[in-house]
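Budget justification note: compute hours in this period were largely spent on complex prediction jobs such as the one shown. Inputs:
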Amino acid sequence: MRRRGRRGRIQAKMARYIAFAVVTSLLVSMIGLVLYRYFSMRAAMEESARNFATLVRVPLVQVTLMYGSSGLQDPVKTWVVQLMELDQDLETLEIVDSDGAQIFAASNGKVELRSLESPGPTIGDLQLLKIINAGLGEIARVDIGGRTKYRIVVPGEETGRSYTLSLVGVWSYERVNRQLARGVLFLGLALMLGLVVAERVAAGLSRGITRNLEELQAGVRKIRKGRLDVRVEIRSEDEIHELAEAFNGMTEDFQQSIERLRRANQELQALDQVKADLVANVSHELRTPLTALKGFLELLDEGELGPLGSEAHRAISVCRRNVDRLALRVEDLVQLSQMEESWPAEVVAESFELGQLVSTIVEIYEGRIRSKGMDLVVDVQPGLPEIVGNLEQIERVVTNLLDNAIKFTPDGGDLRLVVEECDHETRHGILIRVIDSGIGIPPNELVRVFDRFHQVDPSIRRRFGGMGLGLALVHHIVENHQGVVWAESGPGEGTTFSVWLPC
Amino acid sequence: MNRIYVVDDEPDMVELLATVLKGEGYDVETYTDGRAALSRVLEEPPALLLLDLMMPDLDGFELLKLLRLDSRGKHVVVLVVSARTGHRAQLETLQLGANAYIYKPFSPRELVVQVRQLLAEREGAEGE
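Corresponding output:
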């Protein structure tokens, strides 16, 4: 049903257009025909009236003489009746004396006769009366009772008698007008019939076009279902054929592009797997030497392997600190590669107090902060509710953010660590903010700082070393805890990293 | 005195572990080859076996499996040293019969704490 409706659209539209065109040309020519017929009929009627006037001139004189001498009414009456029958458009006929008084009057076959001694009413039309008095003739279209009529005045001739009779005939256009109305009615009926016929014919003709369109549509539908091998076959030689060719070409291009993309995607996936494996393997390989380094440095530092001078002691401390940071980065790398593969189902969640965790981390970093001459203000709201999550991972979040802030703040700068209760979109939770007074991040870079390996600008990388990994891990962990992480900054204004976790 | 065998294919790691444990007063024997270590353990079981998982030829997993199959090695306390982190690795090791595990990189102090605890547990168990 739906298909029929769809198919009907273009076909019906074309049929309507064609029918409209046909009917419009028909209308114009038929209006012309009707008008031509109307005007020629009018002219014919008027000509017949004029002929009448010429023909009646002599008999009128005879009637005047005869009536005047005999006073017999019947022959006059017969003549008038004959005259009335002569022309069907002749509406009234009057024979009046020179004063305009009615002697004979005939209308619609009714003939009324008066005697010269007692004539009927005088013609009321003053203009006409003047013509008759002057013994003049007239042939004119006049307005009688709001209608246009054709009036002929045939003047009487001097017969030597004391009276002169003139004839006034009025022709009506009624029959001609009726013909016009009939013509218009016929025109309307013909047009309606023409419209129906033209539409039918046009619909039949346009079916040839819509059939091809349907085939094209069927092809499109198949391609939409993913069958890119489908080609549309249109046998006609028209524009739809060209459209189908273009469409086939496009599908071919699509097919090739998609094939290329698919291959590229496969290669990328394989590469991604290689990279993930590599990252995992490399970090495993890194852990063993790190353990050896860390272990011996600790033994040295604690004097287990013999006494050290103060210079050596200082050098060993630097080594230990750097080995610890190296270990932290290696762990970031491993965790991130594991998390990007799949969120490990075995993550243990426990409830713990965030304030305590924060102060433990701050203790670890105090030495480094002091050595850079920085000022760290820790502001933890007392009586915070416990949060549920993975302690180690949350520790890594805070550690990475603090480490980041220390690294990107020049010596002598200020750091703030604020932990407080806060709602986020109707959920209750805890907000951790790490605020530095560092170089800041341009706004267009803010959203991308959590991308893996992304860094703001190459010169910063040279000055400070990479941090992309740490923030990417923060992002992952926070998201896996149904939390939110964001950064606010402006160049030169410092940066605030905020982590909100539900509780 | 408690005897501890250290098995790791990395000589540097072996040296570190031996140094730390000797410093704590344990009697330490070191092995860089899994097979030699296994035959020695079966011959004369130590109080604790410190075992690296990733080793060529006979690796830690295999060694542990063979050890637990033998009646002489069934009760040896095994502390696994692993570069693999995560729950899965931990679970695997424990299923194979390790008593505990420690992740690289660890600090000597962490190792000592673990070893002490394990040996104390073992003595407690023997005492019963």
